[in-house]
Write a structure and sequence with these properties.
Blueprint (H helix, E strand, L loop, with lengths): L4 H9 L12 H9 L10 E5 L4 H14 L4 E4 L11 E3 L2 E2 L2 H15 L6 H14 L5 E5 L17 E4 L7 H4 L3 H8 L9 E3 L4 H13 L4 E3 L4 E6 L2 E6 L2 E6 L7 H15 L22 E2 L4 H5 L4 E4 L5 H12 L6 E5 L7 H5 L8 E4 L11 H10 L4 E3 L3 H11 L4 E5 L2 H10 L6
Parallel strand pairs: 1-5, 1-6, 2-5, 6-7, 7-8, 13-17, 14-15, 14-17, 15-16
Antiparallel strand pairs: 2-3, 3-4, 9-10, 10-11, 12-13
Helix pairs in contact: 1-4, 2-5, 3-9, 4-5, 7-8
């Protein structure tokens, strides 16, 4: 098969449903039944929901399990450059031939029925993971939890809920309580749930759901704690205290993500997993406060410090601002592109104190992109000097003429982040 076989099938799948998102489990369960119920044949599942930190926490759990000698399947979304990033089988990215064959099989089994792109591709991922041996399966929720296509596993080994904040309100509800109820939908009867740092309203919803299902709860601030001390990560639960290397992923929020991952790992196999703690200092997850090095974009401005982050909601804006505030002073620029469904003002407001100038751009090849003009206008509204640029490259050229040794944060969307990594000729392995 050619390298474009899966792309052609994925394009066909986009036309199977008039909506991009239509939350229900009926279509997924029907297709899985036609595929002989692969969701009932997966290795033990760790199911991860939340607004921010799902991918980072998953990558830490995966690294910890692999360091302990376990083989791990993973399913994440969205992808940054190529679709096959979403599916790892026993640690390795699914091959083009495997992916094309699975997508074709699912397409045929669906028999032209209405089904969303995410639903049918999730079925393909589940089918792939059911056919190869591994010790664990890590499933990242796509949107919400209760009606997400990944929520077909009847009895996961563990549920994990990362920090919850406002996002995707048009699908999940316009309050923290409503959104939290959707996220808590991954909790299953008698299944332990690890809960990251939450605001009070979110935690109350999660705790109520867990109690109703007799699901043991392991919550930040109650059953476990994580903090930074002397440049290291300190973690504590009822089994004792760990003093380990600081997370390699940048930002103070990664301390909590690492703590959440550690609690999950310490619950597995009756606490008998070994040799996973030190790996927190070696985890990599692209487009999460990622410093771009030794690539195409660095050639535009050799003296610049270039960061990339795909966060797109107010909590992500706060996390980026907190990280920038701890860096040494430099002229600081943002190149920002966002979807028209996002809270642009909420994302940009925390950045006002850290950004000297912002360039608003449209996200290339993205139907739902906000225009650079609109992004720039919103930046002006929150007090950030801003301008419009036609592209990332054009913005970099302007910055080169305006400042020596600048710091640049490219932000606002994982779709923009994927475009930037492709420009940078970055390879995800």
């Amino acid at each position: 098969m050619t390298s474009k076989s899966s792309d052609k099938i994925l394009k066909r799948m986009m036309d199977l449903h008039p909506k991009v998102i239509d939350l229900t489990l009926d279509r997924v369960l029907k297709l899985l039944d036609a595929l002989n119920n692969p969701h009932k044949k997966l290795p033990p599942v760790i199911h991860i929901a939340g607004t921010n930190g799902k991918g980072s926490t998953l990558s830490m759990i995966r690294s910890g399990l692999e360091s302990a000698g376990k083989s791990v399947h993973t399913y994440t979304s969205p992808h940054l450059i190529r679709f096959n990033e979403r599916i790892r089988l026993a640690g390795k990215l699914i091959t083009e031939d495997e992916l094309s064959s699975l997508l074709d099989e699912c397409y045929e089994a669906n028999s032209g029925e209405e089904i969303t792109y995410f639903e049918i591709t999730t079925c393909a991922a589940i089918l792939a993971m059911s056919r190869q041996e591994a010790n664990y399966t890590l499933l990242e929720v796509g949107l919400g939890g209760r009606l997400d296509a990944t929520n077909v596993v009847e009895r996961p080994e563990l549920a994990v809920i990362t920090p919850i904040s406002l996002d995707h309100e048009q699908f999940l509800g316009n309050s923290i309580e409503k959104i939290s109820l959707e996220k808590a939908g991954i909790i299953k009867k008698n299944t332990p749930v690890v809960v990251s740092s939450q605001n009070e309203k979110a935690f109350e919803v999660i705790e109520k759901k867990a109690r109703a299902l007799s699901a043991p709860i392991y919550a930040h601030g109650n059953q476990w704690l994580a903090w930074e001390e002397r440049g290291r990560l300190v973690y504590q639960d009822d089994r004792g205290l760990l003093d380990i290397p600081y997370p390699s992923l940048k930002g103070d929020h990664q301390i909590i993500n690492a703590g959440c991952a550690l609690q999950a790992l310490r619950l597995l196999e009756n606490g008998k997993l070994k040799n996973f703690e030190e790996v927190m200092g070696k985890v990599h997850w692209p487009a999460r406060m990622q410093k771009l090095k030794d690539g195409v974009l660095n050639k535009y401005l050799p003296s610049a410090e270039i960061w990339l982050d795909g966060g797109h909601n107010p909590a992500a804006g706060e996390a980026i601002a907190a990280h920038l505030s701890k860096l040494s002073p430099r002229p600081t620029y943002a190149i920002c592109g966002m979807l028209n469904t996002k809270d642009v003002k909420g994302f940009l407001t925390p950045l006002e104190a850290q950004i000297d100038k912002l360039f608003g751009i449209s996200i290339p090849d993205e139907t739902n992109t906000l225009s650079g003009k609109e992004t720039s206008k919103e930046a002006n509204c929150v007090g950030i000097e801003s301008s419009i640029s036609n592209s990332v490259e054009a913005a970099l050229k302007i910055i080169k003429n305006e400042a020596k040794n600048p710091r640049i944060i490219i932000c606002g969307s994982l779709y923009l982040a994927g475009h930037v990594l492709k420009l940078h000729e970055y390879e995800i392995k």
